[in-house]
Please model this.
Amino acid sequence: MAIPMKSLMFMILTLGVMGCAMPTHPRTPFLRSVDLVDMTNNLSESFAHDEIINSRTSDDSPWVISLNDVVNNTQQIIPESERWLYVARLRSRLAQSDCSARHNMIWVVPPEGIQRIDDENTGSSSLAEQRLTPTHLLTGEFVALTNTSHTGRSDTYVCDYQLVDLQSGLIVWEDAWEVKRYASGLTYD
Model:
């Protein structure tokens, strides 16, 4: 059976318009690698331009900064290795800039990292015995607000970072990063 040319053209045009109307965003509201890059770029700039941090000089006594992985208080599963990546990239960006040297900051491996290295170390002395005592701790926490409806799902993520003085318990620096992600159509929690 032959399809009339007008009907064939109408079907092609209709399919083309429908194809253009398809959503171009991912069908997941979860965090993506671009979020990691955007967040750590923004927060490293915030850290480097902070008034308290900029008041320090290379002659001040060093801040020995240890890290904790980011605490995940969202509905999204974020594996431990990815949670470490969020603080490791921030630390790396700060260490690669001259911020750490200018303000006399030393970044150290967290205690569980020292234990892992010690377990693999074939030398006679333990790295834990040589470890500098941290004066500060860099932490991060993810929280999210999730909304679902018949049209889809949205998640607003906030990641709050804090640099805490371990002696006084004071928060020396704090900033947060926020992003909203959408998924349309059928979604499942």
Q: What stands out?
A: The CA atoms of residues 58 and 104 lie 5 Å apart. The chain has seven helices and six strands. The two ends are 47 Å apart (CA to CA).
